[in-house]
Design goal:
single chain, 4 helices, globular
Amino acid sequence: MITRSQVRMARAALGWGVRELGKRASVAANTVSRYENGMGMTVKTLEQIQLALESEGIIFIRADDSGGPGVRLKKERKDS
């Protein structure tokens, strides 16, 4: 599963606020905020958020021996 920091990083990469992510993932913006601030979330809701971000080109990178979890874009965005 993706981490809280990955959700924040992904939003930043896309230039999205919590409201935009909530809208795209069909969840309340408060749900996104609460998760990013340490509260729990159901697996289904987190999957919705992950799918919304991945559909916009986010790739989630798992932690390994060389570093922690992160994100990157599949390709450069036209609006960047």
